[in-house]
TrEMBL record, chain A:
This is HBAD protein. Belongs to the globin family. It comes from the Eukaryota. One of its GO terms (molecular function) is oxygen binding. Pfam families: Globin. It comes from Tricholaema leucomelas (pied barbet).
Automatic annotation (TrEMBL), chain B:
It holds the Pfam family Globin. It comes from Tricholaema leucomelas. One of its GO terms (molecular function) is organic acid binding. This is Hemoglobin subunit beta. GO terms for biological process: hydrogen peroxide catabolic process. Keywords: Heme, Iron, Metal-binding, Oxygen transport, Transport.
Length: 143, 147
């Protein structure tokens, strides 16, 4: 459950990410593809080489969606409803919680790399909870 | 037996050379207890775990964190036979400590984040990939003797 303090922390941190959305998202995807090659199976239609336009474009999309989630942190279900449908009926990233957890790990590594000591245990906990909540909403309609 | 390329071995040893085992171990364990509070169930004898500040400052957490990461170093010294290295520890975690192996995966992911926060730009994607593989191998070895 996200506390008021968690939400404040998340919004503060996200304001630092906002101006680098594309790089943030792209780096997270790149790290996820390197660390967990099975995630590449969802992108057979992409050029997955480092710095590819498609990864940059998709990274920007992912980061923008997270930004939307941050802005609507009190109503994730509604804010991400369309994305939730997309993941359930079209993308069907499988298994729902597991694969999204791999992306969550890489997103957090990017935050840790760029924030260093500022990625404190409290910030880490808040983000882990937030990304779990987002993943849960995206998996809501799977069955 | 797990196969490690020369590059992977290099990435493991170069990162490990920069790790302060006591500090990183303490931090990793503290974060486990903070980010996944249910893991505190294994540490009821540790005293005050009531807040992130209490956990980070708790001397038993620090000491145990150091112990855990020191043991991790054994895997690094024995990359070609991690299962054998952890055989006894695996039995201990199953028979005496009753720890769900899922917790090894959680701690592994947390360790990666601690390394990322300390090494920042030096913890590139290839580095992360190698270390994700390593923590996976360690977690697998620790679960191997479960029955």
């Amino acid at each position: 459950m996200l506390t008021a303090e968690d939400k404040k922390v998340i919004q503060q941190i996200w304001s630092k990410v906002q101006s680098h959305e594309e790089e943030f998202g792209a780096e997270a995807l790149e790290r996820m593809f390197s660390s967990h090659p099975q995630t590449k199976t969802y992108f057979p239609h992409f050029d997955l080489s480092k710095g590819s336009d498609q990864i940059r474009g998709h990274g920007k999309k992912v980061a923008a969606a997270l930004g939307t989630a941050v802005k609507s942190i009190d109503n994730l279900s509604q804010a991400l409803a369309e994305l939730s449908n997309l993941h359930a009926y079209n993308l069907r990233v499988d298994p729902p919680r597991f694969a999204l957890q791999l992306l969550s790990q890489s997103l957090q590594v990017v935050l840790a790399v760029h924030l260093g000591k500022d990625y404190t245990p409290e910030v880490h906990a808040a983000f882990d909870k937030f990304l779990s909540a987002v993943a849960a909403v995206l998996s809501e309609k799977y069955r | 037996m797990v196969h490690w390329t020369a590059e992977e071995k290099q990435l493991i040893s170069s990162v490990w050379a920069k790790v302060n085992v006591e500090e990183c171990g303490a931090e990793a364990l503290a974060r486990l207890l903070i980010v996944y509070p249910w893991t505190q169930r294994f540490f009821s004898s540790f005293g005050n775990l009531s807040s992130p500040t209490a956990i980070v400052g708790n001397p038993k957490v620090r000491a145990h964190g150091k112990k855990v990461l020191t043991s991790f170093g054994e895997a690094i010294k024995n990359l070609d036979n991690v299962k054998a290295t952890y055989s006894k520890l695996s039995e201990l975690h199953c028979d005496k400590l009753h720890v769900d192996p899922e917790n090894f995966r959680l701690l592994g992911d947390i360790l990666i984040i601690v390394l990322a926060a300390h090494l920042t730009k030096d913890f590139g994607p290839a580095c992360q990939a190698t270390w994700q593989k390593l923590v996976g191998v360690v977690a697998h070895a620790l679960a191997y003797k479960y029955h």
